[in-house]
Amino acid sequence: TLLKNTTKMKFSMIAIAATALAAGVEGFSTVSRPAIRASPLKMADAATEVDTKAALATAANEARGLAMDSIAAAHSGHMGLPLGCAEVGAVLYGSQMQYNPKDTQWINRDRFILSAGHGSMFLYSWLNLAGFDLSIEELKNFRQHHSQTPGHPEFPNSEHTTPGIECTTGPLGAGVSNAVGFAVSEKMAAAKYNTEEHKIFGHHIFALAGDGCFQEGISAEAAQFAAHEKLDNLIILYDSNEVTLDKMAEYTQSEDIMKRYDAYGFETYEIDGHDLAVVEETIAAAKASDNGKPKFIKCNTIIGKGMEETEGTNAAHGEAGVPYVGKAKASIGLPDSGWYVSEGTRDFFTNTVQAKNGKIYDDWQATYAAWKEANPDMATELEDAVADKTMPAEDMLAAIPEMGDEAEATRVSGFKVIQDIAKLVPNYISGSADLHGSTRNYINDGGNFGAGFDKSYAGKNLYFGIREHSMGAILNGIAYHGIFKASGSTFLVFVDYMRPTIRVASLAELGRVSYILTHDSIGVGEDGPTHQPVETVPGLRVIPNLDVYRPADAEETVAAYVSSVTRSDGPTALILSRQNLNQNTAMPAAERRAGTMKGGYIAKKETGDLDLIIIATGSEVQHALEAAAELPGARVVSMPCVEAYERQSDDYKESVLPSSVTKRIAIEAAVTAAWYKYASKVVGVDRFGFSAPGDIVMEELGMTAKNLSAEIASMN
């Protein structure tokens, strides 16, 4: 039945299809009923429904075959989920999701996230069957170099542009947490852009996840947030096959997951994931339930279903079933030829599924046109947001007033700048892991996002709670959804909680996401070494495609923020201080901003013959400027963003750090190793700090102009 159907019966898709044809409207029921005289119209409707059920059963069968053939050809991959969840895929792509394979960026499409990304052939098979531009040839090239079918799904980027992939997944638990970000973005877009006359946003977010996803703690954090903020547009499908990689799941888990999700505040269902009629009925019910509860559907399945030798065991998880592919295909009625898709399945998706979704799409286009005519300014804002179009960085820099000469912490400077950013970039939102008062990234007059209290879905400030890991995943989900630019904040030392999500944002080239990380060094002081990052900034800099900005003063902070919202091909981390920093008032604000945009620049030019270069970043630039004041041949280079600097031309880099000058020293309140790329001597902190007032910690560990001068003197 709808809520509980856990019987696991021996598999035969041919039998299922035959039963569907024989059983009437109820599809798979074999219960006898009294004869009822039906009208011709009702009989026609019943016949259509039976035909649809049979078509879905056949499609599920053929999707299994595509997965088996591709994994066998690659001798690599994960067969268990594509075989075990075929009926779920059939219902999603053949019945319940609204999408247009010819317009993969349609903003009101339903989104599907395969959180269990190792089962990627599930997704590739269904994208092919559903009519997306993903050919059988690409399925044959599964896991091969330059194919559109990589080992785990990858959001379109410079490496892969696979249509229909909404989210890069693979790290377990992350995808189902990204889905919460999608749901946030959809709720926010609906609140911001829908009008009483025209509804242009109203879609659902589906995520398919397995035991591994729910064992990872990130999914629990995200579920708590989703239920608390009443994201009832989120539908999580749990592939409950009782198997993990090493052992059967019972070896490592004994919880009642239904009770857990009930306790979070989800609406929960438990079904037989192989019963097409029940899967369809349940997903339809979940979509129709606008009760303020996200949905959790436990689909009891058999991993590797259809492959007798491995089904239901942990051996089915990977490619262990490859030797049995031929026998398995024969047992479910597939021909020997590889990658078989029947004309009937192609016709079903073209003439039934795409026709139905095509009407939904065409009706929506008419609604959108009327909405756009009635709301031209709002339409321009939305279309700019979808296109990720902002004003040029130069114009944005010019639009933000100069910051002044008083010493202040860059987190305080950041608070001032974010107010301007929020006005200049209307789709910019921000949130914090329970640290708004310290990280200072609250958008004044932006409202608070969510349900209850003073919150609404139109709010620009998100309260994530003490959940850094899920915050990172939710930010990524918002970025993937493709409307808003999102930033999230915490203390820098806690960024390691969310590091995996930053890594994925970087490889997925998510320019819509940024991180505001304050209390950036041993200058934190009294809280002691647990809260004093020393290895953290260098650890972020080694992540490819992540821009790490550590500004030295307020004007550099302006440019860092502008760079974070105008960059389109990757995320940005903004590293801000707790303690006050001096302003480099000897240099015009515009020049500091322009130099910061380039990642590194001459913050103080030598007054004599150049014989020494001091490289510094963040709070140590002030010490470099002071130490250089009495050295006519010394140049100070501020390098707030190594990554942006490295993207500059060779000529520019030579003008800043001429190769003829080899006497160079770098200073940063962090571990020293990376700076030896630029300097022969480095003043840094290659140990943990200690609890004391911040200025004492800085002095004791050598982060002063006095110590820098002594180190320079020792180089002569």
Give a brief rundown of this model.
By secondary structure, this protein is an alpha/beta fold.
The radius of gyration over CA amounts to 29 Å
Low-confidence stretches: 1-38
* DSSP strand count: 18
Strand share of the residues?
A: 5-15%
Residue-averaged pLDDT: 93
**Which bin fits the share of residues in helices?**
40-55%
Oligomer: single chain
Instruction: Note the gap between the termini.
Output: 84 Å
Helix count equals 27
Overall shape: it is elongated
Largest sheet: 6 strands, parallel
Q: Reading side by side through the largest sheet, how are the strands ordered?
A: 9-6-10-11-13-12
Helix/strand class: alpha/beta
